[in-house]
Write a structure and sequence with these properties.
Elements lengths: L11 H34 L1 H9 L1 H27 L3 H28 L1 H7 L4 H16 L1 H16 L4 H24 L5 H22 L16 H35 L1 H17 L1 H19 L3 H28 L1 H8 L3 H17 L1 H15 L4 H25 L2 H32 L15
Length: 457
């Protein structure tokens, strides 16, 4: 029988780090094989196919981000039931999550395939890269079931305190992805369809490994009755999942707007922006992982009504975010040419990427801190303010890119990101502090100073 992991007991720092590091390796490996895809496509097929794949980034984030928000929202309820030691509620929430995910997969797959071409046209996709963008998109969205299956299985495992199994799954899928991407392009001489197909197969491998672990966990051994009469559970899951899904999709709309303006500048700008986006996603992963850790840790302890431990967990996760910023922000600021030249060939593209990387590197602390406080709100079952912050992110991105592109050119893309990060950080930081103070007062613990040195951590 497989084990689950209780995050409501023991010293906070060792527990968080034990959960954090396997998940960090998981997320970093995911980003590494994404970057490997980019490098193989860029160096093997050229800058135009790279632009085609990169042109799909904001759109795939819109669709996949919506499904990821839902499954992450579902995991909050699952973790709270687990922390509260409510066995029946736990099983029903897992069963209901599966049912909802199947329905969502069918709906998102149909909608994304039907509207792919009109959306690419709306984004001013160049005729030079339109065919490759469509081919890549149809394959990715056609295999959406694999991505949602992995995200759901991994979210349930993390809700139960298991971050090791998703890591093992990603190790195997990463090796498969990198090897067969290279094979598809350099040996089979395929175009962008090669990496797209390999990506889907990699996600199938990841999902299968996580599912094999889930079926061995006695606490969530499901029967037919767990799938019945779950209307109240559906509402609870959607209450957490929909705001998080909307937050991701609204953020993606802002990214798509930026993509619209970048595409209007020319294919060289699209290539540069694609490479920069890959690096941003890679370098924010440690802080993003700290945020996911914060969500799982907060959810279990919120269910157990151990609010002091949430404050302790916040301090540890914020420390991780600070270290992340100092390391990766410095790499972006001091080595932008090296980073850009790893993916791009043309001198113009490299120079453009350097502009983005330096400015974003200085301010990337904002998104690092954002992951932690936003996840803290979500873990306490308070998804409204994170959703509002998603709207703020979109508004800030759109406002900056619309108002300053003509004057600043490509540099406006980095300022749009920075403005979005700062706006969302302000809202979530205030909300998290207010919510946690209120819960601590319920337990008569008095005032809470989130950044003080906490004992017994």
């Amino acid at each position: 029988m497989a084990k689950t992991y209780d995050l409501t007991k023991g010293k906070t720092t060792p527990i968080i780090l034990k959960f954090f590091f396997p998940m960090l390796l998981t997320n970093m490996l995911q980003q590494i094989y994404t970057i490997a895809d980019t490098m193989i496509v860029g160096k093997g097929l050229g800058d135009d196919p790279l632009a085609a794949v990169g042109n799909m980034s904001s759109l795939t984030f819109f669709v996949i981000g919506f499904s990821l928000g839902l499954t992450n929202g579902f995991s909050v309820s699952i973790a709270q039931y687990y922390g509260a030691k409510d066995s029946e509620g736990l099983k029903k929430s897992v069963a209901s999550s599966i049912t909802l995910s199947v329905f969502i997969t069918i709906l998102l797959t149909a909608v994304s395939i039907i509207f792919l071409r009109p959306v690419l046209i709306m984004l001013r996709t160049s005729d030079v890269i339109m065919a490759d963008s469509l081919l890549y998109g149809y394959i990715i969205f056609g295999g959406l079931f694999s991505t949602i299956a992995y995200n759901l299985c991994a979210s349930i495992l993390r809700a139960l305190g298991d971050s090791k199994t998703p890591f093992i799954a990603i190790v195997f899928s990463t090796i498969f992805n990198i090897v067969f991407n290279w094979v598809s392009i350099y040996i089979l001489h395929m175009g962008v369809e090669g990496p797209a197909i390999v990506t889907i197969l990699s996600q199938v491998i990841s999902a299968a490994i996580c599912l094999a672990k889930l079926v061995k966990i006695e606490e969530i051994r499901l029967k037919k009755e767990h799938f019945k009469e779950n209307f109240g559970i559906y509402l609870e899951l959607l209450k957490n999942g929909i705001p998080m899904a909307i937050m991701n999709s609204i953020t993606a709309v802002g990214c798509m707007t930026v993509q619209y303006f970048v595409n209007g500048m020319g294919v060289a700008f699209t290539s540069a922006y694609s490479a920069c986006s890959k690096y941003i996603n890679l370098f924010m992963q440690p802080a993003c992982t700290a945020g996911i850790t914060m969500s799982s840790f907060t959810s279990q302890n919120y269910g157990a009504k151990k609010y002091d431990r949430i404050a302790e967990g916040f301090r540890v996760c914020m420390t991780i975010a600070v270290i992340t910023y100092l390391i990766f922000g410095s790499v972006m600021v001091f080595f932008p040419r090296f980073l850009a030249s790893l993916m791009l060939n043309g001198e113009q593209q490299i120079e453009l990427a350097m502009i983005y990387l330096v400015r974003s590197g200085i301010m990337i602390f904002a998104v690092d801190f954002l992951f932690v406080v936003r996840s803290g709100c979500q873990g306490m079952g308070k998804p409204l303010f994170p959703m509002i912050s998603g709207i703020v992110e979109m508004v800030m991105r759109v406002a900056v890119i619309v108002l300053f592109t003509e004057k600043l050119g490509f540099a406006a893309t980095s300022y749009a990101e920075i403005a979005a990060w700062l706006g969302a950080l302000l809202i979530n930081g205030i909300a998290f502090t207010v919510f946690l103070r209120a819960k601590l007062k319920e337990n008569s613990t008095g005032k809470i100073y989130l950044f003080r040195r906490l004992k017994h951590v």
